Amino acid sequence: MPPSDRIRDHAGQGATTVAAHRARRRLRADQARQLADLLRHQVLAGGFPDGTLPHETTLATDYRATRNTVRQALDLLRAEGLVDRLPGVGTVVVARKYPHGLDQLMGLAETLREHGTVTNEVRTMGPAPAPAPVAERLRVPAGTDVLYIERLRRLGGLPLSLDLTYIPLDIGTALLGADLENTDVFRLLESITGQRLGHAEITLEAVNADTHSAAVLEAPRGAAVLMLERLTHLADGRPVDLEFIRFRGDRITMSGLLHRSL
């Protein structure tokens, strides 16, 4: 075989080896993500009552994975701030997420009442001209004053959400003297109007925290937050509460019970 052919043949074998190595790395990364999803559920569901995950060898056996795959999965959970590695102890749960249901219309304090007391820091509150998109959704003339409220909500002192709320002023005026620091707006709306809340339209998406939101929520700049946009109606159908809620993604998990209907 001519030298040039031998060189090309050797180069081809090298390329094949590199491609195979990359394929193995991609496969391990895929498997690590799959395992991280399973372990994340266990962590959030309280599947490790003593707060310590099984040894890597045990996890590898239980999930039929390699030690490297297990380590990579644990690294993913560590990057999320859910677990940490302690010398002489192993992998331990260091944070928890609180469940926020999507199948019931409740305020945050009602949703998390089993986990502690939710407190509100009212950062801004007062009448403000309604931007056109807000006016349209609340069914008021554009430029009409609405009540604007910005609240930082905490559970046990930990910042959970930053809420921006718009309420028609004929209802919102009664909120100006209310105890918003310790009472959900939903309860106050029902008390003021004498009606039950009926339904809400929601949109949920992940967005990157802007500098202001990150600072208020004490989250890393650019961190992913869960943005919940919710338009709540009274039982008679009138829209009364438009909210843009930024939840810390590392402290809240959204869940719901869905029924299939065609």
Show unreliable segments.
Answer: none
Main pleated sheet = 6 strands, antiparallel
Please state the average pLDDT score.
86
Q: How many strand units?
A: 10
Reading side by side through the largest sheet, how are the strands ordered?
4-5-6-9-8-7
Helix % is: 25-40%
Sketch the topology as an H/E string, one letter per element. HHHEEEHEHEEHHEHEEE
Give the CA-CA distance, first to last residue.
68 Å
Q: Name the overall outline.
A: elongated
Give the percentage of residues in beta strands: 25-35%
Rounded radius of gyration (Å):
25 Å
SS-derived structural category: alpha+beta
Number of helices: 8
Overview of this structure, please?
- The chain is α+β, with helices and mostly antiparallel strands and 262 residues long.
- It is 35% helix and 32% strand.
- Helix 1 crosses helix 3.
- 24% of the residues are buried.
- The strands form 3 sheets. It has a 6-stranded antiparallel β-sheet with strand order 4-5-6-9-8-7. The protein has a two-stranded antiparallel ribbon with strand order 1-2. Strands 3-10 form a two-stranded parallel sheet.
